[in-house]
Amino acid sequence: MKPFNSYKNPALAVDLVVFGYQGESLSVLLLNRKDEPFKDQWTLPGGFLQMEETFKDTCARILLTKLGINNLYTEQLFSFDDINRDPRGRVISVSYFTLINPKRFALVTGSMANDVKWFNIAKLPALGFDHRHIFKIALERLRAKIQYNPVGFELLNEKFTLPELHQLYEQVLDFPIDRRNFRRKILDSGFISSTGEKKTGAQNRHPDIYMFNKQLKSNQFHLNLQSPAKD
Q1: So what CATH class is 157-220?
Q2: Which of the residues 10, 126, 173, 217 could staple to 90 if both were Cys, CB 3.0 to 4.6 A apart?
């Protein structure tokens, strides 16, 4: 058997897909690279795993140093190992995704980027590396997960109305959802509780205001919303 130090080892990177919900649309956070490769182009925020770090440590460092945010829940998405995915050499990317409400965070552009910016998921610029592919996998995961895990509440304000929650689900799933069916399923799930307040300022209506019930376990959540059949 060859000694361990005789093997050539690829570099390990972590790439983050940060989803946000703002202006009634689903967005993803991108950074504009200051250095080659893909200088002055948009990519997902990412970085190389350091010897003393776990993947979670690297996620936290990327979020803090490149975006100016911290204390976010991150979930591992997938590993990307195409041999030619990085022009600098053999790099394997372990990707993560997270969901945030942009109103709760003030972005800070780190020293290794020209800019950080939210982009509507339907209007993405060209992305460097294989980041378009990583983004698509993350979006598929989000659309599947939001139906059986209450992750969508991370994208909203602490207090919200049912119409606001309904609109969020339509934006994420990208298909129209029957309002009465959605209302019944979300109320039956028990994952939202009425605050006893009503939203003021709405035209001719004052919808009830709800909060996410964090006490329930996520395995009790299952909406099973179906895309309407197309002719």
Answers
A1: mainly alpha
A2: 10
Q: Are strands 46-48 and 192-198 parallel, antiparallel or unpaired?
A: unpaired
Residue 55 CB neighbour total at 10 angstroms: 15
Q: What is the pLDDT along the chain (231 residues), one digit of tens a residue?
A: 788 778 888 999 999 999 999 878 999 999 999 999 999 999 999 999 999 999 999 999 999 999 988 888 899 999 999 999 999 999 999 999 999 999 888 888 888 899 999 999 999 999 999 999 999 999 999 999 999 888 888 899 999 999 999 999 999 999 999 999 999 999 998 889 999 998 886 565 788 999 998 777 777 788 888 877 553
Provide the CATH number for the domain formed by 10-145 in this structure.
Answer: 3.90.79.10
Delimiting residues of CATH 3.90.79.10 domain(s) in the chain? 10-145
Measured in degrees and rounded to the nearest 5, phi and psi for residue 38 equal 60, 40
- Are 83 and 90 in contact by the 8 Å Cβ rule? The answer is yes
